[in-house]
Write a structure and sequence with these properties.
The strands form 2 sheets. The protein has a 6-stranded mixed beta sheet. The protein has a 5-stranded mixed beta sheet with strand order 1-4-3-2-5, covered by helices on one side. The chain has 15 helices and 11 strands. It is α/β, with parallel strands linked by helices. Strand 9 (266-271), helix 11 (289-304) and strand 10 (311-317) form a beta-alpha-beta unit.
Length: 399
């Protein structure tokens, strides 16, 4: 019953949950199947089921008109009890009786052998269940490949779009990495006033690669650039391009850049670039066809789009040594911005940013805390403040 339940659930989702006035072809298949079963059950002639002993008694007294013997059952007609009555069909379970044929011949009863029909079992076993299994497999593959609306959206980009009003992150929210912020001011000025740079024939860098250890604030910094420039922000992870189906990653790269051209001016941010930009030929067997195709498409798109439309590519990685050299040449990721762990002054600024959201006890010295956390990244410091708040809450403290 599980395959049938799955099919009914799928049909309900397609017609009700999606709130679309459409009729799925699966409904017609399901209705036809139940109509066929209904006709077979309710239009079949009524048959009286008797025991084998009752059958032998009726045979002995001469009430049996004719029988049809199959592997497991005996079907037949009984003579009418009155002159006006009709023959009554009956059925009984066949038992091992070697004298049955001789008795039928002796009583003058017409008999014949019949191959037992198993149409319902064959229909369910060889047609219905395989069909439901294929539909279930197709639905799983469609969800696995689509992810954003079914199999027809397999080549669609999985990038999340944040428009200007949704970003709400500026450089005021980014602390402790002043050097990286200074290097990105030129990108913000270009997105705000592109004519200032185009007037003298200058070409703005197409791509900016943020390099740093995990938790140093690379993603937050990219969002802050979009927030300062007041442009849309398209973000996607490098792993979202990679699929088990060849050609899907390249199609998603094309769709991503097409979306960016429509939303220009905007920033494309690819997190964990090393998942898709790893140097070609470094696979176990010398290469990875799907990954290489995706990377080739990314290189081609970066060569083809025009920065004068206001589209800037930013990416982040903590493993720049594994990236393909073609990604790092001039004209693609022209600039690399190192986002390092904050120094003591930067840690103090980060702690102050996160401390604004929680009450602080009077005896807590933030500068002492900053000096006592060497090597901590921005994420480590944010987690430290959060754990302190949780510990205070467990101890029922006001601060």
């Amino acid at each position: 019953m599980k395959p049938l339940y799955f099919l009914i659930t799928k049909l309900f989702q397609e017609t009700v949950v999606d709130q679309k006035p459409k009729i799925s072809p699966l409904w017609f298949m399901l209705m036809f199947f139940f109509l066929f079963l209904t006709l077979q059950i309710y239009l079949a002639p009524k048959v009286n089921e008797i025991t084998y002993s009752e059958f032998k008694t009726a045979l002995t007294v001469g009430k049996i008109e004719e029988v049809s013997i199959s592997g497991n059952t005996i079907k037949g007609l009984m003579k009418p009890e009155t002159a006006d009555g009709g023959e009554k069909p009956f059925v009984t379970i066949r038992v091992d009786d070697k004298d049955l044929v001789s008795e039928l011949s002796a009583r003058g009863v017409k008999y014949k052998g019949e191959v037992e029909t198993t149409w319902l079992r064959d229909l369910l076993l060889f047609w219905v269940f395989p069909l439901l299994l294929m539909l279930g497999a197709w639905s799983f593959i469609a969800k696995r490949m689509g992810g954003m609306g079914g199999v027809m959206s397999i080549g669609k980009s999985r990038a999340k779009l944040y428009v200007e009003e949704e970003t709400k992150v500026t450089f005021d929210d980014v602390a402790g990495i002043d050097e990286a912020k200074e290097e990105l001011h030129e990108i913000i000025e270009f997105l705000k006033t592109p004519e200032k740079f185009q007037r003298l024939g200058g070409r703005i860098p197409k791509g900016v690669l943020l390099v740093g250890a995990p938790g140093t604030g690379k993603t937050l910094l990219a969002k802050a650039v979009a927030g300062e420039a007041k442009v849309s922000f398209l973000t996607i992870s490098g792993s979202d391009f990679v699929e088990m189906f060849v050609g899907v990653g390249a199609a998603r790269v094309r769709d991503l850049f097409a979306q960016a051209q429509e939303k220009a001016p905007c920033i494309i941010f690819i997190d964990e670039l090393d998942a898709v930009g790893r140097a070609r030929g470094m696979g176990v067997f010398g290469g990875d066809s799907e990954r290489d195709q995706t990377l080739n498409q990314l290189l081609a798109e970066m060569d083809g789009f025009d920065t004068r439309k206001g589209v800037i590519i930013m990416a982040a990685t903590n493993r720049p040594e594994v990236l393909d050299p073609a990604l790092l040449r001039p004209g693609r990721f022209d600039r690399q911005v190192v986002v390092s762990a904050p120094d003591v002054k930067g840690r103090l600024e980060i702690i102050k940013v996160h401390a604004k959201k929680i009450p602080i006890a009077d005896d807590v010295k933030l500068d002492v805390l900053a000096r006592g956390t060497p090597g901590f990244s921005g994420a480590d410091l944010a987690n430290l403040i959060n754990e302190a708040a949780l510990l205070a809450a467990r101890q029922s403290k006001a601060k």
